[in-house]
Amino acid sequence: MPLAAESSAVYIQNTAPGFISTPGRAPTSVTVHPVALFSILDHYLRRTESQERVIGTLLGKRSDNGEVEVRSSFAVLHSETEEQVAVDMDYLKTMYDLHHKVNPKEVIVGWYSTGSNLNTYSALIHNFYSQEAAPHQVVHLAVNTGIVEGEKAGVKAYVGSPVGVYPKPENCVFAPIPCELRFHDAERSGLDLLTTTSVALNSTTPHPVTDLEVLEQSLKSVAEMLDRVLSYVQSVLAGEVKGDAAVGRYLMDRLGASTEDLEKGGFNSSLQVRNHEARMISSVAHLYSLQDTLMVSYLASLVRSQAEVSARLALVTST
Amino acid sequence: MAAATSMAAALAASLPAPSSAPAPAAPTYEAIPASMSKVIDLEGEIPLNSVQLDGLVVSKIIKHSRDAQGSTTHGLVLGIDLDGTLEVSNSFPMPNHSPDDDDKSAKGITRYQASMLRSLKDVQADDSIVGFYQAMTLGSFFNQTLIETQAIHQEKLRHGGVVIVHDMSQTARGNASFRAFRLTRAFLDALKRNNFSATSLIDHRLTFSSILEELPVKIRTNALLSSFLGTLTEPSAPSVAGGHPSAASSSAALPPSFSTLNLGTASVARNLEHIIEAVDAYKTEEGNLAYLHRQIAREKQKADAYVNKRKEENAARVAQGLAPLPEENVNRLFKIPPEPSRLESMLLLGRIDAYSKALAETSSTGLVKMYAAKTNSGV
């Protein structure tokens, strides 16, 4: 899942022989966990008036194939003026130690800043973080929060490589590398919750909702999609809209599997019989699992009422 | 080279500057005198009636719960109370402490907590603790530690604080679940007296369902997060033309998901096992209670017999004109064990109830999904 609009930039592999002595490989791609992203946004929201951008540390894991996994992030104090840039090192050390206590597997993999301007200060900070994470290379995430008009919100990842005959900390080429949003499947529903919240009125939703309500929502949206496809197909058939071949292929690919059986059944009577048998078997299986589910449901309510009765009886017995 | 070193020197020289500079805002954190605190604290008098969770907290808790699976996951939530709503804006995980080196680790945790709060304050984040969170599986979160921690919090924190529980198994099934609780007044009263005998339970009308009271939870995303999520879910320019159907992945960073429609009922077996375990534990606990009760009854019977015998003897002696023997303290002679605490069995019942509730919910959605699948296949 790419995090920003496709750019025409070519992702350059920065292998600078003799320059950087990196064990393992240089970062080739970055994956970002939503928590890190949301922390950055929260930090940006809480900046002081004088701050134009905020920076912070990215924590995560490096894998052998050059992929950097950003799993969390924390804010770091810094100040930028016309003449100089300063990063609070003590603060960074303290915070890193604290995070390390809870999650020993996560190490410093890079730093983030908001806004998408890369300047000399960025190069200096990058140099500073490279020293922190040495001997590994660090990545830089430029998070565009999308508040500047005309710029789209998104995240870009860079690795820095020194440039010039003599390497200087303030000279640095930021080479873009691919960046993706990644999270575990089990965490998906949390994101769904937030996305439904973000479009809701006042950006708040009441909670908790029951499983049935969530299921109802999903079924409704599936039904809506089917309706949309159906109306599109019908309008194509009626000749109102010119059919898009690509869409047709997608539909064929999706729905082909289930219609195939029907066609075969229609053309071939022996197959029809077999088809019928298969349906019988499936309906029997359905019946069995229906019985099982009903039994489980019955059991659940039985246990619940027993527990409730038992709790009430405990109050009565010794009077 | 010279320029480089001077730049680096300038960088190095400026680094400790922010920490060493005296913060002008420091004196404003003067403690409010105790006599005045009631007057100044207007919000303290408005009772809490709901909890609002920020999107950041939601994702932080989910990540922590998943990372630390197996061990008990807990952490602190930070925020502020405003007009009856507890706005939770941040959270941080707590390190797991082993029960071995209790004293040392407890100190370490206190230090960790203080240090974390100070650091968060430095970057303008909320730094007042309003409760804690805990991960659970299959809806069951009743245990002694949770209740003890909450009891401590309820004494120390404003409004008593809340405990936010997060159900990992339900989240994995596609419905992220967060609930907020606090202890009821009756339970807290019983806990203070440390008395969970049958009579105390009756006095306080305590069952497992009246240990905790639930507060309604609202989820909120701030404007920045909302707009960012909007960008993520919005599909980028349709580049379908010419694309092969097999590569038909949506181009949005967050395509819609339908994981709730999965027919999978894998968790049912585990759920049933949990119920059986809890019922077994309850049975053992009840056995213990019954044993203790019998012992108490036996001791009481002995004591009564002794008292009666003494009374008869005394009556006989009085009839014979002798001085009656002194009535000895029965309690000293017979050790009647104190009435056993029913807290554990109550919590176990609560656990059984929670597991079966989760089971009922799974089976009810399962039924709906099965009928949906049946209609589909019966075309």
TrEMBL record, chain A:
CDD domains: MPN_eIF3f. InterPro entries: eIF3f, EIF3F/CSN6-like_C, JAMM/MPN+_dom, MPN. It is found in: Cytoplasm. Keywords: Cytoplasm, Initiation factor, Protein biosynthesis. Pfam families: JAB, MitMem_reg. Its main location: cytoplasm. Signal peptide: none annotated. It comes from the Eukaryota. Residues 30-164 form the MPN domain. Component of the eukaryotic translation initiation factor 3 (eIF-3) complex, which is involved in protein synthesis of a specialized repertoire of mRNAs and, together with other initiation factors, stimulates binding of mRNA and methionyl-tRNAi to the 40S ribosome. The eIF-3 complex specifically targets and initiates translation of a subset of mRNAs involved in cell proliferation. Component of the eukaryotic translation initiation factor 3 (eIF-3) complex. Belongs to the eIF-3 subunit F family. This is Eukaryotic translation initiation factor 3 subunit F. It comes from Rhodofomes roseus.
TrEMBL record, chain B:
HAMAP family: eIF3h. This is Eukaryotic translation initiation factor 3 subunit H. Residues 51-187 form the MPN domain. Keywords: Cytoplasm, Initiation factor, Protein biosynthesis. The lineage of its organism: Eukaryota, Fungi, Dikarya, Basidiomycota, Agaricomycotina. It is found in: Cytoplasm. InterPro entries: eIF3h, eIF3h_C, JAMM/MPN+_dom, JAMM_MPN+_peptidase_M67A, MPN. Belongs to the eIF-3 subunit H family. Its main location: cytoplasm. Component of the eukaryotic translation initiation factor 3 (eIF-3) complex, which is involved in protein synthesis of a specialized repertoire of mRNAs and, together with other initiation factors, stimulates binding of mRNA and methionyl-tRNAi to the 40S ribosome. The eIF-3 complex specifically targets and initiates translation of a subset of mRNAs involved in cell proliferation. Pfam families: eIF3h_C, JAB. The keyword Ribosomal protein does not apply. PROSITE patterns: MPN. Component of the eukaryotic translation initiation factor 3 (eIF-3) complex. It comes from the Eukaryota.
